[in-house]
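quick one
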Amino acid sequence: MDALSKNDIIELNITDMTADGEGIGKYNGFPFFVKDAIIGDVISAKVVKLKKTYGYARVESVLTPSPDRVTPHCSIARQCGGCQIQAMDYKAQLAFKEKMVRNNLSRIGGIESDTYAFLPIVGMDNPYEYRNKAQFPVAKDKNGNIVMGFYAGRTHSVIGCERCHIGDRVNEPVLAAVRDYMTVCTIPPYNEIDTSGTVRHILIRVGKKTGEVMVCLVINADTLPDTSYLVEKLCDSVPGIASVMININKEKTNVILGPVSKTIWGKSYIEDFIGDIRYRISPNSFYQVNPIQTEKLYTKALSLAELTGNETVWDLYCGIGTISLFLAKKARKVYGVEIVPQAIEDARQNALLNGIDNATFFAGKAEEVVPAYYDEHRDEHADVMVVDPPRKGCDEKLLSTMISMSPERIVYVSCDSATLSRDLKFLTSNGYDVRQVQCFDQFPHTCHVETVACLQRVDM
Ligand code: SAH
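structure w/ S-adenosyl-L-homocysteine:
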């Protein structure tokens, strides 16, 4: 845009938001994306980047706040990379997510809203303190003091913050105890630049139902000195402490955890429940971070599967078997498929732990395992197939095989409504109808949303 240059100050009326939570406002018809601006705001903004057909701007000041603008609970909401829409009233956040999903279904999927039931989004009664896992980076500030907190958005500088409002309250006493230990026993934080120092991250996991707490120090060393002091401090000040561990990560990498974890005190895992299924969680295990919402989501997936006890069910992209085990009690047989072999081992362990003997797990790519299985067992019928893929959605080879296997119902759990819509377009062009869609807010204050869609085979 010729008339404008970088650093110009402009007035923008924010009329829409992107899927990443950036506000969109037009200046003489030219769209600008603005972080931290929400629909309904009128802002004064500084132009930071100009492209041919759009630009980026930064909020200078809010001239007229949106009716949905609220004061974020967190004082570092704007700097921190974790949440994007804390400044938006929670009800408005839910409406925004719902609208985004409906738009994608229609625009990308060609699925019009009058052809299926769209049930109201399921939000949280208290959309704070929901996370059961936190990973605090540890560093030294300019004055040599220990800082524990979060990376500033898209950077590696650590902003001190020991109270994350979407994290569990137990994080604060844990961090205080670790800080005390590092100070008294002179254990230095890790320095990313010259790879000196010891403590890189503090991983905290909480079993929300069991109250068990795991603290795992990720260290740039093979051992940690004076751990009895650390354990004593943690036991004194952290209710529910059940496991104190170290994880060894000596690589120059952004990946937080290394492959080896060792127990210093207590158990090498904690346990938690979703519904009445018990799960064992190790430092490296994948486990849903919002168990309250996960239970609601899985209960919905189970009800959509309409199991009577005679069905053969596939759970694709099954992780540690969370959905599979939820379904197993109501089905004749469940097959789970997951690409990470360690997760499949956890899934088998979790089945044993719950006395579930009708679940079989395969490690491998869903788009390879399922076609190979189908080739060998043409006569076996699949009644229900559940998929819960990562953001990129399902591989088309998998979708084609699912269509050949022709289950009565497909339950699609998705964390990205754009790829969900693309995949639903494929399925609805090949003999399936979308019957019902519902969103679950697994990640309040971020732009993410989970969606579950139920498809029914239509006999053509
Ligand atoms: N259903 C599980 C996990 C969902 S996350 C739960 O609710 O806990 C998506 C999972 O898909 C991850 O565990 C990831 O490792 C796995 N995955 C990614 N690509 C895959 C593929 N091509 N085939 C099978 N699993 C895959």
